[in-house]
Design goal:
The protein is an alpha+beta fold. It is built from six helices and eight strands; from the N terminus they run H-E-H-E-H-E-H-E-E-E-H-E-E-H. A six-stranded mixed beta sheet has the order 7-6-1-3-2-8, covered by helices on one side. The longest helix is centred in the C-terminal third of the chain and has 20 residues.
């Protein structure tokens, strides 16, 4: 229990692991759509970043969406440069497991992505999702513009009211400017496409988010 509590407490930058200067090797192309994982991408795409728990299941939610050009899993919002998966899981880097999404706003809107975010996990659990416990499983929206930040904060307030009516606690999702994204190792990229029977601990609350409705 003591170890679980330590993993659920954000580490100070001074106490974080040192990391490394060199980026970790990762996949060259997306396993599902075969496009180059790091680009180049078509003009007009926009970028979003979300943390919703174990990034294996989260990435699958987004790569299935029409209008999403590219997804990748990685680490963000911590202190350690170029961390490994084992380092992130130790709780000693401060990073979250996140999914980077490149999407075509002419096909799918940022609010459409937010709807998937809010409904796809339980944003009231703090530093965990279900049985996955640790700071790397926290709920987070990492924004690339003022418009994204405004939409994230507005929908957070709207969804919080619905969750409260359904008996859930306060929303704990962090909303901050997008930090540096570190690509995760090759085997994590599109993990559930490579391993269809693999672990997925992501689950929503059953509460719908009132995006795109009169509510």
């Amino acid at each position: 229990m003591l170890f679980s509590r330590k993993k659920s407490t954000m580490i100070d930058a001074a106490d974080a692991l040192p990391g490394r200067e060199t980026a970790l090797p990762t996949a060259e192309q997306h396993f599902v759509n075969t496009r180059p994982l790091k680009g180049p991408f078509p003009e007009g795409l926009e970028t979003a970043m979300f943390g919703m728990g174990c990034f294996w299941g989260v990435e699958r939610m987004f790569w299935k969406l029409d209008g999403v050009w590219m997804t990748a899993v990685g680490y963000a919002a911590g202190h350690t440069p170029n961390p490994t998966y084992q380092e992130v899981c130790s709780g000693r880097t401060g990073h979250n497991e996140v999914v980077l999404v490149h999407y075509d706003p002419a096909v799918i809107s940022y609010e459409d992505l937010l709807k998937v975010f809010w409904e796809g996990h339980d944003p009231t659990q703090g530093m965990q999702q279900g049985n996955d416990v640790g700071t790397q499983y926290r709920s987070g929206i990492y924004t690339y513009s003022e418009a994204q930040r405004d939409a994230a904060q507005r929908t957070k307030a709207d969804f919080a009211r619905r969750l409260k009516k359904a008996g859930y606690g306060a929303v704990t999702s962090e909303i901050i400017d997008a930090p540096e994204f570190y690509y995760a190792e090759d085997y994590h990229q599109q993990y559930l496409a490579k391993n269809p029977a693999g672990y997925c601990g992501i689950g929503g609350t059953g509460v719908t988010c009132p995006i795109g409705t009169a509510a």
